[in-house]
């Protein structure tokens, strides 16, 4: 370097300052000198690194002594927060927020103390040198080593409110280790799994932007975008100066104070110019942008701006799309392991508190507007509504000015005195922007008792009101002490007021009685299960009853009657229905077939009951075509018959299997495997004898009809053509007809009218086992009609059972039907008693005869502890009966030194509340009486409910310990890392539709009214005060958080609730609004809608990366968004060559509609394409096929005859050509830019085209005018 450029730094330089030095050298002195400086710095580093090294031992981990005092102070603040909750001063949520704030600030304070301790005592400490020089590690890891680990986050990102106050030097306890294992495991899993997601995001970004290349110098557009500083909760994340460096101005900028132009349009913004613009205090600057570039399929140099690698305008042929994709994807890849490095430590930013730099007096500016509010920590404070100033006047009369931003908490009063380092302001962090979410905190009763209301603003409603109350104001609920019992409604209370009650004494008694007379049966264990009462017995004598084995191998009890009637009893598992007790089934053998077949029914009104059909009419007709089916599911050996052969009854079909019907055999094979054998009764006729028989295919033939001279139909039959061994036959199959009649006296067909003596036995309707046209495949007999026999006498008795007994009398079986009533303890015991201490006593014995309404069992509720009963309160609600016992244990007597009148009766006092005599109550409660120097306090616990809380109980309700009292609604802060950010980035760039989307305003207006009705919120919005009749109506869910208030002004697309915004819906809302104005054309409406969406997408993506401290240049994200928002969908093609639902560029539709002039234009709507869909909808089918759905895309391209112009990088790489970027940029451009070298022979004086001869000059001009070559003459 020259003498004029030498700069001397006499300070310790860390990694960040080395970066600043290199940036200064690069920008001011160029690449060569910056490289020389970098080599010299490298030489110095290697020189001294070989002379000395760093060693680490456990003694280097020095814990600052001040840690004990810091932790002690934090514990005291946490205990104070607990006491405030017990006093009812703050809610449980406010205590939680206060604890989180306390430990978060403690961790940050301890971190600062660690740094200060190292600097003062051991500046050459190995840990300090490595962490703070930037060589290895960071401050977060050093804090965990020798400070405290602090608050941890669970795998869902929620804060665990129990901090780890130890560090790795001191060692973790078992509890600390378990708490920290959540985050540690999350880091390991994320490292293994989420890295692939980040890489896949990079791949999609590159695929969507790979054809974006700078092909022009200037597109000459007049459009641009507004850039301003990024602010979050009054904190500037990135300044306007840093944001506009490297961009090109779209419009000139003037200094109006001195009437001087600072910069012209199309001028690149250097750091020096950016500083001048920043000094003007401009809020926004309009710059050229890739989003507004009018170049077709590319971006021009001016709209892109600088190449940030070397600080000059981007070169022509630069692959800016690849650079943009890598710039967005690389931070996600690198920061995926951030959670792994920090071990799951809660990383939310601490509250930014502003402390007084000096002691002195505070003066507020006159324009400051404030309002009283309650902070999220339960503290009353003032909050600023506008931007103003605060002046601190020291004792030396030095004035210090402090800016107060809007929504800043003010903890001091005007003209008050403050001490040095006292907190005066706190900037509220906007949790909704930094990842906050709506959460619920359920409040449970600590003790049982009666609910009492202190705040009269909560309405005193009846206890029968069942819906929950949305608390609109802050209120304080009390639970006054007592012991609660839940007893049955009909039970009898056995204790009295003002009596002494011993332990296990009976409080209430409930009894179980029977309805019918009967005997106590001893088949059930009485003490364990319950009772079994036999109350009825029916005897059936002189009937034909037998025990037989059915075809399935089970024994069944069959009663035979006259005229083919039979009853099959359900002896094993009688069916119990709500209305009847099923005993068995009654059959008529006349309605039984020999084999299966196809059934048809007529003249029935059918009612479907699962697979069966009930017949409601008196009768009907059933037609049946018999057909035996043998299903073959195993190797059965050789068959003894062939297909088409006629088989007779009892002839062997295959080994040990004989048929029970004659007919024609048909063998069915599937995939050459024997599957079924069919036997169809009837006969077959060959068509070779008479081909006229083909006309009788699938017909019904009646008796007497003549088929041929030889064949006359003798019975109702069905005919159809069949093929056997490639020969055609006509099959004639009989149709069997059943006439069904429904008789109510079917039980009379059994001997001695036994069943008619039993009056409670009834028959059901006739049931058909099939559906019409149903084919039943079987070779066994089928009972097609049956009736159920059921008893109605015990239908109304729960837990009834039935038992059959068979006795032999005079060589005949006698049937006894016994009815039992089961009285089980678990079922007859009231639900309320299962949760209470009780005593069960049985009042009957086995085999005892009992009369109706006899007391069988008694349940006695026992009192848990001995007490002196003062009062009993009772409540009936929701079919429950609650009893609250109030005893002397629920009262406390407080003695004071002197009688006074400062305390009043019927007043509530809280824990720690000091009276006029500095009397401090150790219990909260209700003052019931005052006698002299005695104060009688009825114990109670206060519960504070904030605004918006849901209270599930009412004043006067009796509540049990642990029962839910209500729930608080609050904003929960979540720890943020790139893991939670990457899915959000992917969701935005893929333009995914959320499951529940926010309701959007369709046009600007003023909120007139908000009304809560049941579970919904109704909002009325008018365009302005003069058009109230044209107001819009919106309906949103009651549980969603509303983002507006009455008389607020909202713009088009403004979200009404805090659900995620659907970008597709927002785009359609903007487009519909601009069209409704009837000012803009469809092209202008779509263009403006796209600009709105592009701005929203840009801010959304940047917000994720800004929250991680990652700063990506806006131009990179703008290139990706440009690819997502450039196409429209054709609605109607009009007279254009476009097709409906086709996706085309917005500019292309604009040009086509302009060419149509007076003809019918194409109608379209703008759409957003996710990066995956945009990659597949590109003009290059080769590029799309190399990404996804290769076969589909290539097939579609071949069918449509598409042409790929090879404009991008991927398609040229695939076909093996030089890519059109970098040195290959000019290779495939138009002929007007191709350099042509003319041979040297033509450039001589005698043979040159440019000679003085007239003919040569004419040829030269013609050639030059027709073909625009760049001639380069070779010497």
TrEMBL record:
<dbReference type="Pfam" id="PF04998">
    <property type="entry name" value="RNA_pol_Rpb1_5"/>
</dbReference>
<feature type="binding site">
    <location>
        <position position="300"/>
    </location>
    <ligand>
        <name>Zn(2+)</name>
    </ligand>
</feature>
<dbReference type="InterPro" id="IPR007066">
    <property type="entry name" value="RNA_pol_Rpb1_3"/>
</dbReference>
<dbReference type="GO" id="GO:0006351">
    <property type="term" value="P:DNA-templated transcription"/>
</dbReference>
<dbReference type="GO" id="GO:0000428">
    <property type="term" value="C:DNA-directed RNA polymerase complex"/>
</dbReference>
<dbReference type="GO" id="GO:0003677">
    <property type="term" value="F:DNA binding"/>
</dbReference>
<keyword id="KW-0804">Transcription</keyword>
<dbReference type="InterPro" id="IPR012756">
    <property type="entry name" value="DNA-dir_RpoC2_beta_pp"/>
</dbReference>
<dbReference type="GO" id="GO:0008270">
    <property type="term" value="F:zinc ion binding"/>
</dbReference>
<feature type="binding site">
    <location>
        <position position="293"/>
    </location>
    <ligand>
        <name>Zn(2+)</name>
    </ligand>
</feature>
<feature type="domain" description="RNA polymerase Rpb1">
    <location>
        <begin position="171"/>
        <end position="660"/>
    </location>
</feature>
<keyword id="KW-0548">Nucleotidyltransferase</keyword>
<dbReference type="Pfam" id="PF04983">
    <property type="entry name" value="RNA_pol_Rpb1_3"/>
</dbReference>
<feature type="domain" description="RNA polymerase Rpb1">
    <location>
        <begin position="1089"/>
        <end position="1177"/>
    </location>
</feature>
<keyword id="KW-0150">Chloroplast</keyword>
<feature type="domain" description="RNA polymerase Rpb1">
    <location>
        <begin position="90"/>
        <end position="168"/>
    </location>
</feature>
<feature type="domain" description="RNA polymerase Rpb1">
    <location>
        <begin position="7"/>
        <end position="61"/>
    </location>
</feature>
<feature type="binding site">
    <location>
        <position position="219"/>
    </location>
    <ligand>
        <name>Zn(2+)</name>
    </ligand>
</feature>
<dbReference type="InterPro" id="IPR038120">
    <property type="entry name" value="Rpb1_funnel_sf"/>
</dbReference>
<comment type="function">
    <text>DNA-dependent RNA polymerase catalyzes the transcription of DNA into RNA using the four ribonucleoside triphosphates as substrates.</text>
</comment>
<dbReference type="GO" id="GO:0003899">
    <property type="term" value="F:DNA-directed RNA polymerase activity"/>
</dbReference>
<comment type="subunit">
    <text>In plastids the minimal PEP RNA polymerase catalytic core is composed of four subunits: alpha, beta, beta', and beta''. When a (nuclear-encoded) sigma factor is associated with the core the holoenzyme is formed, which can initiate transcription.</text>
</comment>
<dbReference type="GO" id="GO:0009507">
    <property type="term" value="C:chloroplast"/>
</dbReference>
<dbReference type="InterPro" id="IPR007081">
    <property type="entry name" value="RNA_pol_Rpb1_5"/>
</dbReference>
<comment type="similarity">
    <text>Belongs to the RNA polymerase beta' chain family. RpoC2 subfamily.</text>
</comment>
<keyword id="KW-0808">Transferase</keyword>
<keyword id="KW-0934">Plastid</keyword>
<dbReference type="InterPro" id="IPR042102">
    <property type="entry name" value="RNA_pol_Rpb1_3_sf"/>
</dbReference>
<dbReference type="Pfam" id="PF05000">
    <property type="entry name" value="RNA_pol_Rpb1_4"/>
</dbReference>
<feature type="binding site">
    <location>
        <position position="303"/>
    </location>
    <ligand>
        <name>Zn(2+)</name>
    </ligand>
</feature>
<dbReference type="InterPro" id="IPR045867">
    <property type="entry name" value="DNA-dir_RpoC_beta_prime"/>
</dbReference>
<protein>
    <recommendedName>
        <fullName>DNA-directed RNA polymerase subunit beta''</fullName>
        <ecNumber>2.7.7.6</ecNumber>
    </recommendedName>
</protein>
<keyword id="KW-0479">Metal-binding</keyword>
<keyword id="KW-0862">Zinc</keyword>
<dbReference type="InterPro" id="IPR007083">
    <property type="entry name" value="RNA_pol_Rpb1_4"/>
</dbReference>
<keyword id="KW-0240">DNA-directed RNA polymerase</keyword>
């Amino acid at each position: 370097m020259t003498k004029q450029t030498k700069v001397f730094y006499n300070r310790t330089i860390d990694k960040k300052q080395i970066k600043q030095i290199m940036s200064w050298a690069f920008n001011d002195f160029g690449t060569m000198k910056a490289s020389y400086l970098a080599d010299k710095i490298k030489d110095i580093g290697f020189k001294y690194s070989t002379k000395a090294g760093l060693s680490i031992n456990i003694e280097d981990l020095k814990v600052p002594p001040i840690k004990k005092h810091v932790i002690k102070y934090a514990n005291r603040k946490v205990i104070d927060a607990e006491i405030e909750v017990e006093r009812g001063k703050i809610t449980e949520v406010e205590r939680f927020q206060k604890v989180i704030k306390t430990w978060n600030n403690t961790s940050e304070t301890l971190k600062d103390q660690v740094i200060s301790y190292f600097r003062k005592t051991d500046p050459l400490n190995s840990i300090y040198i490595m962490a703070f020089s930037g060589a290895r590690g960071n401050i977060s890891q050093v804090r965990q080593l020798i400070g405290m680990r602090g608050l941890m986050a669970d795998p869902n990102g929620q804060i665990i409110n129990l901090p780890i106050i130890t560090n790795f030097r001191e060692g973790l306890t078992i509890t600390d280790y378990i708490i920290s294992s959540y985050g540690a495991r999350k880091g390991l899993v994320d490292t293994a799994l989420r890295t692939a997601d980040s890489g896949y995001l990079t791949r999609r970004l590159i695929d969507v932007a790979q054809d974006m290349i700078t092909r022009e110098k200037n597109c000459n557009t007049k459009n641009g975008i507004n850039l301003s500083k990024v602010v979050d909760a009054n904190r500037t994340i990135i300044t306007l100066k840093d944001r506009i460096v490297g961009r090109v101005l779209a419009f000139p900028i003037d200094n109006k104070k001195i009437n001087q132009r600072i910069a012209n349009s199309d001028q690149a913004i250097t750091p020096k110019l950016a500083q001048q613009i920043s000094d003007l205090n401009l809020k926004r600057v309009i710059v050229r942008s890739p989003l507004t570039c009018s170049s077709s399929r590319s971006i021009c140099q001016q709209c892109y701006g600088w190449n940030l690698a070397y600080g000059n305008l981007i070169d022509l042929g630069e692959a800016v799309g690849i650079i943009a994709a890598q710039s967005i994807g690389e931070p996600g890849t690198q920061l995926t392991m951030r959670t792994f490095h920090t071990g799951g430590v809660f990383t939310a930013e601490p509250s930014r508190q502003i402390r007084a730099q000096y002691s002195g007096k505070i003066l507020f500016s006159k324009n400051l507007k404030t309002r009283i509010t309650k902070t999220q920590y339960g503290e009353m404070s003032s909050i600023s509504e506008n931007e103003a100033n605060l002046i601190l006047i020291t004792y030396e009369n030095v004035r210090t000015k402090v800016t107060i931003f809007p929504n800043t908490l003010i903890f001091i009063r005007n003209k008050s005195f403050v001490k040095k380092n006292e907190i005066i302001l706190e900037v509220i962090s906007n949790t909704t922007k930094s990842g906050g979410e709506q959460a619920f905190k359920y409040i449970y009763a600590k003790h049982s008792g009666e609910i009492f209301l202190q705040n009269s603003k909560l309405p005193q409603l009846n206890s029968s009101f069942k819906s929950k109350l949305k608390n609109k104001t802050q209120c304080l609920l009390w639970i006054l002490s007592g012991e609660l019992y839940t007893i049955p409604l009909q039970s009898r209370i056995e204790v009295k007021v003002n009596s002494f009650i011993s332990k296990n004494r009976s409080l209430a008694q409930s009894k179980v009685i029977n309805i019918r007379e009967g005997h106590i049966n001893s088949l059930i264990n009485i003490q364990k299960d319950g009772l079994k009462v036999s109350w009825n017995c029916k005897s059936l004598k002189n009937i034909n009853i037998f025990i037989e084995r059915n075809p399935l191998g089970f024994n069944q009890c069959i009663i035979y009657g006259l005229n083919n009637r039979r009853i099959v009893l359900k002896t094993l598992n009688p069916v119990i229905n709500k209305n009847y007790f099923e005993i068995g089934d009654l059959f008529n053998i006349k309605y039984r077939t020999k084999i299966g077949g196809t059934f048809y029914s007529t003249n029935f009104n059918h009612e479907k009951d699962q697979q069966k059909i009930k017949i409601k009419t008196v009768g009907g007709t059933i037609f049946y075509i018999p057909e035996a089916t043998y299903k073959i599911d195993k190797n059965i050996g050789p068959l003894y018959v062939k297909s088409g052969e006629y088989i007779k009854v009892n002839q062997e079909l295959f080994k040990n299997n004989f048929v029970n019907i004659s007919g024609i055999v048909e063998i069915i094979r599937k995939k050459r495997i024997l599957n079924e054998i069919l036997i169809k009764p009837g006969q077959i006729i060959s068509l070779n004898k008479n081909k006229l028989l083909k006309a009788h295919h699938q017909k019904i033939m009646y008796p007497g009809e003549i088929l041929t001279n030889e064949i006359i139909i003798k019975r109702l039959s069905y005919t159809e053509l069949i093929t056997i061994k490639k020969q055609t036959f006509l099959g004639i199959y009989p149709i069997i007809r059943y006439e069904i009649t429904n008789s109510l006296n079917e039980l009379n067909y059994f001997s001695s009218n036994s069943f008619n003596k039993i009056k409670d036995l009834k028959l059901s309707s006739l049931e058909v086992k099939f559906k019409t046209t149903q084919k039943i495949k079987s070779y066994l007999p089928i009972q097609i009609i049956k009736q159920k026999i059921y008893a109605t006498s015990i239908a109304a008795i729960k837990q009834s059972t039935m038992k059959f007994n068979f006795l032999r009398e005079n060589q005949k079986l006698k049937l006894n039907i016994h009815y039992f009533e089961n009285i089980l303890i678990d079922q007859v015991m009231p639900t309320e008693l299962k949760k209470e201490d009780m005593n069960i006593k049985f009042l009957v014995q086995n085999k005892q005869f009992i009369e109706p309404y006899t007391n069988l069992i008694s349940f006695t509720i026992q009192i848990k502890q001995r007490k002196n009963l003062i009062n009993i309160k009772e409540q009936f609600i929701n079919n429950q009966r609650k009893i609250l016992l109030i005893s002397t244990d629920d009262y406390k007597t407080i003695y004071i030194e002197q009688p006074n009148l400062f305390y009043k009766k019927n007043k509530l006092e809280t824990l720690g509340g000091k009276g006029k005599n500095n009397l401090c109550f150790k219990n909260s409660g209700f003052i019931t009486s005052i006698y002299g120097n005695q104060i009688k306090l009825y114990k109670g616990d206060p519960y504070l409910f904030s605004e918006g809380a849901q209270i599930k109980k009412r004043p006067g309700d009796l509540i049990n310990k642990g029962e839910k009292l209500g729930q608080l609604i609050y904003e929960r802060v979540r720890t943020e890392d790139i893991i939670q950010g990457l899915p959000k980035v992917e969701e935005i760039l893929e333009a995914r539709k959320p499951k529940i989307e926010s309701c959007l305003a369709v046009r600007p207006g003023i909120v007139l009214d908000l009304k809560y009705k049941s579970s919904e919120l109704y909002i009325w919005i008018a365009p302005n005060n003069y058009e109230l009749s044209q107001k819009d109506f919106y309906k949103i869910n009651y549980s969603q958080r509303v983002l507006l208030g009455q008389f607020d002004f909202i713009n088009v697309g403004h979200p009404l609730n805090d659900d995620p915004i659907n970008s597709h819906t927002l785009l359609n809302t903007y487009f519909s609004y601009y069209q409704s104005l009837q000012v803009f054309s469809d092209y202008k409406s779509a263009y403006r809608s796209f600009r709105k969406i592009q701005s929203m997408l840009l801010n959304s993506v940047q917000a994720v990366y800004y929250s991680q401290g990652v700063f990506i240049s806006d131009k990179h994200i703008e290139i990706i968004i440009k690819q997502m928002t450039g196409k429209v969908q054709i609605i109607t093609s009009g007279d254009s060559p476009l097709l409906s639902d086709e996706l085309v560029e917005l500019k292309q539709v604009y040009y086509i509609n302009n060419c149509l002039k007076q003809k019918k234009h194409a109608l379209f709507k703008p759409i957003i394409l996710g990066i995956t869909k945009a990659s597949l909808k590109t003009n290059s089918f080769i590029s799309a096929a190399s990404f996804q759905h290769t076969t589909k895309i290539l097939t579609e391209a071949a069918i449509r005859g598409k042409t790929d112009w090879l404009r991008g990088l991927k398609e040229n790489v695939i076909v093996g050509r030089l890519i059109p970027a970098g040195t290959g940029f000019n290779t495939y451009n138009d002929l007007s830019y191709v350099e042509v070298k003319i041979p040297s022979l033509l450039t001589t004086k005698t043979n040159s085209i440019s000679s003085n001869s007239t003919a040569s000059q004419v040829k030269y001009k013609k050639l030059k005018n027709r073909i625009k070559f760049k001639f380069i003459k070779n010497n």
